[in-house]
Amino acid sequence: VSSDDIELDLDRLGQLLAPGPSIVSAVMVRVADTRMQSSHQFLIRRWLMRGTIGLAASAAVAFIIFTILSRPALSWGGVVNKVSATRSLTLDLIVDSEEPLHIYIKGGLMRLETYGRVTIWKPSNGKALMLDLTGKRATSITFASQSFDFYQWLKGLRNGHAKILGRQHLDGQEVRLMKVTRPVAIAPDRTEPSAMTLWVDPSTQLPRQAEAEINDTKVLLKNLRFDAEINDKLFDTSVPAGFVTTDLGGVPTSQLQPRPAGQGELDSLTLKPGVGIGQLKFGAQKEEVIRSLGEPEEVHQGIDFRYPSKGLFVLVHPKAGLLRIVAMSKKAADAYSLNDFPGKTDRGIALGDKRTQIEAAYGKPATVRDRGNMVVLEYKNPDASFMLSQDKLVEIVLGKQ
Amino acid sequence: VRTDAELVTSTIAGDPLAFAELVGRHERSMRATAFYILRDHHTAEDATQDAFVSAYKKLPVLRDRASFAFWVMKILRRRAVELLKRGRKTVSLECATNVAAPGVRPGLDDERLIAALMRLPKRERMVLMLRHFDGHEVRMIAAITGESVGTITKRISRGHARLRDWLKESFL
Predict the structure, then answer these.
(1) Do residues A115 and A39 touch, judged by C-beta distance below 8 A?
(2) What is the pTM of this model?
(3) pLDDT for the residue numbered B95
(4) Does residue A130 contact residue A116 with C-beta atoms inside 8 Å?
(5) Chain A residues touching B53 at Cβ < 8 A
(6) Which among B78, B114, B165 has the least Cβ separation from residue A13?
(7) What is the 3-state secondary structure (H, E, C) of chain A?
(8) What is d(CA B33, CA B27) in angstroms, rounded to the nearest whole number?
(9) Is the pLDDT of residue A361 over 60?
(10) Checking CA distances to A257, which of A122, A166, A366, B99 falls within 20 to 30 Å?
(11) Out of B49, B86, B128, whose CB is closest to A10?
């Protein structure tokens, strides 16, 4: 590289790094099969499915950091008391350049608003009601209780190093700018320093805005208002008149039945590709399914039998009988509450196993699909697929041939 | 020439050709960035396709439509890093490009240049990539970003100057 011919060098580098024909047509073929997500659907999914109760934490974090900074002699219990004393909070959450989500938090309830869509959510029991105010549709679902550990956050914050950057004006009002750097766990065995910038109102000594970059994603918490008056009606979970309601089901984590552990029960859950599960064979009718697996804990649309305590879903067609068996882990189920499937396949494969173990047991798959954070090994004969996340088996699906 | 923001709006309104135009505008910068991370042309192409498809799905949530280029690049970087973490070993740029394009003789100097490019402030980096990798003229880049020709010209000059300085320093 000659520093005098930088333009030519850059032109040449472009040719070197991205040679060959255009990918436009390949992308457009894939896009043709893709549905654009509505902004509300995407944001709610981001919010609920990724366990993003971290938002509440993030907002509270801003408060807590300030509390720690301004009163260094404050005891640990005092900090916790301070946090508990906060009764309500409203804010706008903006992730990267996306549409803001308006959030209200009060007494363990949360309300999320965007684009005439509303979600009212109680993280403690996972109950959520989503309202499409324009389309007059209501959807209820019970998510798994969030595993977010608030006290871990608090502990992590105590390791933060704070620096006051000076004064600034925010919406015409003078605020103090602070930067706090703290270690954040990015993997079970690895932490990296993460910085958060706070805009603090000197008169109330509370933050009005906070910004952090987490895993290359910029999260901006704007218009923070602590102890704001919030009308309880905003958290009313009754479905307005005239709305069409869909219940997507779900069992609160606290109400999950115990995970099967006895040998007899585990034998009845042995997955047999091409054959069935335990003594139950593909094609078995509803009554046989219930005799073998027990009464379903949830039934959807009359054919989707769910056993969340067993991490098992089966599809039973009124005529064709048992068609599909899905054995899941909590990881694959995302926010849906269930126990990890406790059984194994007839060749000893269980959730958590690696790809090499699956291929040693069943050979090379017919197809390997890469779904971003998941890899799916698909076998054609018999019809079976194994989904892995970070080389750990998280879901097994068997189908009738 | 329509701006990126206008193309995003048209795509959301149901015009697939608008999205094709967006892909065509940015694909080489994207593929070069993916290659910088992955060091494999096939995987870099997969990552780039994945990033565009993912961006298409999420397009309605993009608030600042003029920032499409930065946004899709961020999606790409995440995707490329995911693929990298999935056990792919990194190799030197020289080795990787020799395999893919045996007629070319790049070397460690290219490593320095791309590393320096990636260190640039993101707006400077983006215009240099649009200029040199995607091959757009200054007027076109101004149209794409919705900024003035003067701003783009200044940004390109600043980027070039910064790269020259950094590369001179690295030779000392």
Answers:
(1) yes
(2) 0.51
(3) 46
(4) no
(5) 27, 30-31, 34
(6) B114
(7) CCHHHHHHHHHHHHHHHCCCCCCHHHHHHHHHCCCCCCHHHHHHHHHHHCCCCHHHHHHHHHHHHHHHHHCCCCCHHHHHHHHHHCCEEEEEEEECCECCEEEEEECCEEEEEECCEEEEEECCCCEEEEEECCCCEEEEEEECCCCCCHHHHHHHHCCCEEEEEEEEEECCEEEEEEEEEEEEEEECCEEEEEEEEEEEECCCCEEEEEEEEECCEEEEEEEEEECCCCCHHHHCCCCCCCCEEEECCCCCHHHCCCCCCCHHHHHCCCEECCCEECCEECCCCHHHHHHHHCCCCEEECCCEEEEHHHCEEEEEECCCEEEEEEEECHHHHCCECCCCCCCCECCCCCCCCCHHHHHHHHCCCCEEEECCCCEEEEECCCCEEEEEECCEEEEEEEECC
(8) 10
(9) yes
(10) A122
(11) B128
Tokens 């070993």 identify what position? Answer: B89
CA B51 to chain centre: 12
Task: Give tens-digit pLDDT for A215-240.
Answer: 556 778 888 887 888 999 998 888 99
Q: What would the DSSP string read from start to end of B26-91?
A: HHHHHHHHHHHHH--HHHHHHHHHHHHHHHHHHGGGBSSGGGHHHHHHHHHHHHHHHHHHTTPPP-
How close, in Å, is residue B97 to chain A by CA atoms? 7
Average pLDDT per 10 consecutive residues for chain B, totaling 172 residues: 89 83 91 86 88 88 85 90 66 45 49 85 90 90 89 94 84 44
ipTM of the modeled complex:
0.81
HSE of A374, CA atoms in CB hemisphere, 13 A:
16
pLDDT at A63: 44
pLDDT by residue (tens digit) across A242-277? 988 877 777 777 778 888 888 888 889 999 999 999
Structure tokens at A67: 């509390």
Chain A hits for B39, CB-CB cut-off 8 Å, are none
Q: Verify whether the Cβ–Cβ distance B67 to A18 is below 8 Å.
A: no
Burial of A34 (0-12, 13-18, 19+ CB in 10 A): exposed
Q: What angle do CA A332, A336, A340 make, to 5 degrees?
A: 55
Which residues in chain B touch residue A1, judged by CB atoms under 8 angstroms apart?
Answer: 109-110, 112-113, 167
**Does A105 score more than 70 pLDDT?**
yes
pLDDT at B156: 94
Residue B94 touches chain A, beta carbons under 8 Å: no
Token pair for A37: 């997500």
Q: What is the largest CA-CA distance in chain A?
A: 80
Q: Which tens digits make up the pLDDT trace of A68-90?
A: 444 433 233 333 344 445 677 88
Q: Do A23 and B168 touch (CB under 8 A)?
A: no
> What is the C-alpha end-to-end distance of chain B, expressed in Å?
44
Q: A35 vs B57: CB contact, 8 Å cut-off?
A: yes
